[in-house]
Design brief:
Elements (H helix, E strand, L loop, with lengths): L20 E7 L6 H9 L5 E7 L6 H7 L5 E4 L4 H11 L4 E4 L4 E2 L4 H10 L4 E8 L4 H15 L9 E4 H7 L9 H12 L2 E10 L2 H4 L3 H16 L4 H29 L15
Parallel strand pairs: 1-2, 1-4, 2-3, 6-8
Antiparallel strand pairs: 4-7, 5-8, 6-7
């Protein structure tokens, strides 16, 4: 793994005392999109290290990560987002931990804002979030997410971050089949000062576009309230599974329809991640 001082980020007075920020990326068959994410992280200014926490990819994800010029640490664990994030955090050396999905991007000034927040006594939170795309759907989805955040509700796709001390005291992510990110955010909110940092961070809207705004929002709200009502996460995971299958099925139907009509399906510049 490359030393934490970043190429393209010349050392200035006091720079050696800047905190090391560990970016933990959970992966499962992310060979298509991971190189672009690592290129993005390699271009950020500040003291970063990157830890790829793989859950058993079969498409060469780990090999691509190890071969990348960024030289991220690569750790392997059993499949499951919470376990992968915990394994990555245990391997990380940074004073600050950032949990970044493979289809997301950090804002250019992430290191500076993280440093300022932690030095002011803030122990964690997330980033202001924008969904990729300039269309109405992406803007509406972002507005709904921002409204939820004002109520203290946020999830892993807005890039959670936490100080090492707070993460240790919270015991990391609980091994839940669903809502592990929301559970962690709730415990973090109860513990101390949190903040939504400016950015914005960027994430893909493609996985939600298949369902549309109304059904997307309903799925967010209903599953969250069922969780708060005490419905076991295992049952919620079973409830959520048809939603994921429908999203995948609608994509298959569009591809088949495009093939029948002779039209080429565009990628829209976005890619669906495995950890959403």
């Amino acid at each position: 793994m490359r030393a934490p001082s970043r190429q393209g980020a010349p050392l200035t007075r006091g720079a050696a005392r800047a905190p090391l920020v560990s970016v933990v990326v959970p992966t499962l068959d992310e060979a298509r999109g991971l190189p672009g994410l690592l290129d993005h992280l390699d271009g950020l200014r500040g003291r970063f290290e990157v830890v790829v926490a793989d859950g058993g990819s079969r498409d060469g994800t780990r090999e691509l990560a190890r071969a990348h010029a960024l030289e991220p640490a690569v750790v392997e664990s059993a499949r499951g987002r919470a376990g992968q994030l915990n394994a990555g955090a245990r391997a990380a050396r940074g004073e600050l931990l950032v949990f970044l999905h493979a289809d997301s991007r950090l804002p250019p000034g992430a290191h500076a804002t993280l440093t300022a927040a932690s030095r002011s006594g803030i122990e964690g939170g997330n980033f202001d979030l924008r969904f990729a795309g300039s269309d109405l759907f992406s803007r509406l989805l972002g507005a709904v997410y921002a409204a939820q955040r004002r109520c203290g509700v946020y999830y892993g796709d807005s890039t959670l971050w936490v100080t090492r001390a707070a993460w240790d005291e919270l015991g990391g992510f609980r091994a839940l089949p669903i809502m592990d990110d929301y559970d962690f955010a709730r415990r973090l909110e109860r513990r101390g000062r949190t903040a939504r940092l400016p950015g914005p961070a960027l994430t893909s809207a493609r996985r939600w576009r298949r369902m549309g705004i109304p059904r997307t929002v309903v799925s967010w709200v209903v599953i969250r309230w069922l969780y708060l009502a005490g419905i076991p996460p295992e049952r919620l995971a079973a409830l959520y599974r048809p939603v994921r299958e429908e999203r995948a099925g609608s994509a298959d139907r569009r591809r088949k329809g495009g093939a029948r009509s002779g039209r080429k399906l565009g990628s829209g510049g976005e890619r669906e991640g495995s950890h959403c």
